[in-house]
Amino acid sequence: MILRIGYGVYVKAKISSLSGNPIPTLLLTEIGLQVMKRLGVEADVGYFQRQYRDGKSTQIPMRDVIATRKPVTRKISLGEKELIYEKFR
Fold this sequence. Notes:
Strand content: 25-35%
Structural class: alpha+beta
Strand order of the largest sheet: 1-2-3
Helix content: 10-25%
Oligomer: single chain
């Protein structure tokens, strides 16, 4: 299966064993990073996700955030979950 999650952005999907609805095989943050790479925009996970990844924080970030060097207006969403963009700190 294939899901459309943005303008020109399609991802592979599988059927959820819980709800029976199609869900993407990758996390929304990972999809956003791949899209930015293909667009030629330097990007990484958001500030709080980097803090958690580097072991500087024990709090698990709940929002899908990507930090970019350039402003991005592309909307990437799946249902009610939407990817948020922030400027590199």
